Amino acid sequence: MRCTIFVAAPAMLRRLARAATQQQGALWARGSGSQAGIPTHVVDLRSDTVTKPGPAMRRSMAEAVVGDDDYGEDPTVRELQATAAELLGVERTLFMPTNTMANLISVMYHCQCRGSPLLLGQECHLHVQAQGGVAQIAGAHSHPLPDLPHGTLDLAELEGLVARSLGSRSHPVCELICLEDAHSSSGGWVLPIECLCQPSLVHLLAQSYGVQVHLDGARLMNAAVALCMPPARIVEHCDSVSLRFSKGLGAPVGALVGRPKGFTEEAWRLQKALGGGMCQAGVLAAAALVGLTDAEEVLLKDHQNAQRFARGELASPVCSVDLTTVETNTVRVRVDGLPPEELCQRLQTMSADEVAQTGHAVLRAVWHRDISAQDTKLALGKWAFVLRALRMG
Ligand SMILES: Cc1ncc(COP(=O)(O)O)c(C=O)c1O
């Protein structure tokens, strides 16, 4: 479950508390912005996709020098592609509207045999949340494996699946393994670098059997910040990588795909086939460039805020957080003894009683550039209040 927290605007608190004691009734309110007359400050922790471009990003979008990207003539797109290629240590990258498209293009490129199985984790985004595009469009089919901690897969199982197709008339040939870093469904866990770097076992496996490795790097920059490592080192032995600009990097739209060598001409053709060609896309690339510029600083702050929240006073009979899972910007709260929906509902409710007691009136919670340290503190205060109330009830 994802979480939004309603907090009253601090300046109004004393007056509201006074009013609350005078006026009984209509104590509970819900909604956003203003809840039945109580001005609210929303701490929106549903996802890192809810960010709005700040002034610097908007300015760079307004001032972007553009051209027709369909002709390869948009200078800002070219600048972004070159900057990202350097960051990822790949020959070239290709800017596109979404990470779903970047992943799909990679699958279409690597899986040349129709019906080719794509080995991936059963909870990864590509398997669960991409509308089966690899089957619908790429003619490949997902072969899901159980996700192990940190988004890793069982190597013996991977090898067994790859090896059995060799020389077999019945088993389809495995051409691709897909990994995700950071791993979204496990709460932003980071793939251990040994899984990806030389002599990575996945890489050796891929090399021995000619299988390619694609990395869904929608949150690759979060992983890089968590590992204190250049993204290029993480993707060094991957055969393709995607990167999304509209999560923690804060851009409104955009992603890209990159591969060490070759690939981009074919990827460009595939992008056209999927309807992903863009014209003056520089206005979007400009936002992505701003997102990349301050990525390290902003994402580090997001991770610190998530840690601060996770280490706050969440421990209660109702809620608990496994601190070892908090590696990036996501906190997963385990809820026992009441339905998570109920807790979410309560966290989205503002009451004058709450204002009177706490001075400020937020389950999967994801930190992003629009959430400050102060918001994190307010969210913790709200959480503590709700837990106290639940224990009393
Ligand atoms: C790991 C991962 N891969 C891919 C995507 C899809 O990105 P987009 O919405 O840009 O298509 C997401 C989006 O949430 C994601 O979390």
From TrEMBL:
Transmembrane segments: none annotated. This is Aromatic amino acid beta-eliminating lyase/threonine aldolase domain-containing protein. It comes from Monodon monoceros (Narwhal). One of its GO terms (molecular function) is L-allo-threonine aldolase activity. The gene is LOC114889528. Pfam families: Beta_elim_lyase. The keyword Signal applies. InterPro entries: ArAA_b-elim_lyase/Thr_aldolase, Low_specificity_L-TA-like, PyrdxlP-dep_Trfase, PyrdxlP-dep_Trfase_major, PyrdxlP-dep_Trfase_small. The modification N6-(pyridoxal phosphate)lysine is found at residue 247. The lineage of its organism: Eukaryota, Metazoa, Chordata, Craniata, Vertebrata.
